[in-house]
Design goal:
The chain is mainly α and 217 residues long. The protein has two domains: 44 residues; 164 residues, no CATH class. The protein has seven helices and no strands. Helix 1 packs antiparallel against helix 2, helix 1 packs antiparallel against helix 6 and helix 2 packs antiparallel against helix 4.
Length: 217
């Protein structure tokens, strides 16, 4: 009788042991698939945040400073060229220079046009930078956030001067030169490149659709 039960137990073991192994294997495979997909989902979410950071904050901010920089560079070149030409005109003119005002009129217009552009196009670009920074402050990293106050201060002083609420003498004491924004501009350009490269590298490392199917299958 004992031998019969031993044989039955042996037979039962032959049936159940492979079944248990198969179940454990299936559960293990399911867990690995779940863990892999969850890790991919977290990575995709993090990547989406970086892409949004680039698209909605760093890229438009750098676009603004590039436009401002191009305008500033052109103004500097034009001012140098105009100064050289005016000096030559003065040197060639008879003494006394009786038609001084008439000859200076085109140069005066050049200065006026630069000032018009300054307030019609460039200052609104700074306003846009403040608006982007304010609305999307949460997208800026900690290093970039440190520059927020200086940008707001710079733009507010400029508006005060435009409205004649800040006298020129006070403006000089406030050291409103634009150099105070150099660290912000450097940070924005560096971070844009850094996060753009990060997105490109992570996109290249992401599994293809067929690879994802093999994992989930």
């Amino acid at each position: 009788m004992q031998q019969v039960w031993q044989e039955k137990l042996i037979d039962l073991g032959r049936v159940t042991l492979p079944a248990i192994i198969a179940v454990v294997g299936a559960l293990g495979a399911a867990f690995l698939t779940y863990w892999s997909l969850r890790r991919q989902a977290r990575a995709a979410k993090a990547l989406d945040f970086v892409e949004r950071r680039v698209r909605e904050f760093y890229s438009p901010m750098v676009g603004c400073i590039k436009r401002i920089g191009a305008w500033t560079e052109l103004q500097s070149e034009t001012a140098v060229a105009a100064d050289v030409e005016w000096r030559q005109i003065c040197d060639r003119a008879p003494k006394p220079f009786l038609d001084h005002e008439k000859r200076f009129e085109p140069f005066k217009r050049l200065i006026e046009y630069g000032n018009e552009q300054l307030y019609a196009e460039i200052l609104p670009l700074y306003d846009r930078m403040v608006a982007i920074f304010t609305e999307h402050y949460w997208l800026a990293d900690e290093e970039t956030q440190r520059h927020y106050g200086k940008l707001c201060r710079f733009v507010e002083i400029w508006h005060g001067y435009k409205a004649t609420a800040i006298p020129p003498e006070v403006l000089l004491k406030l050291k409103h030169t634009g150099e105070e924004l150099y660290p912000l501009c450097e940070t924005l350009e560096r971070k844009l490149q850094e996060y753009t490269d990060l997105v490109a590298n992570r996109r290249a490392d992401q599994p293809t659709t067929s690879q994802q199917r093999r994992v989930s299958g």
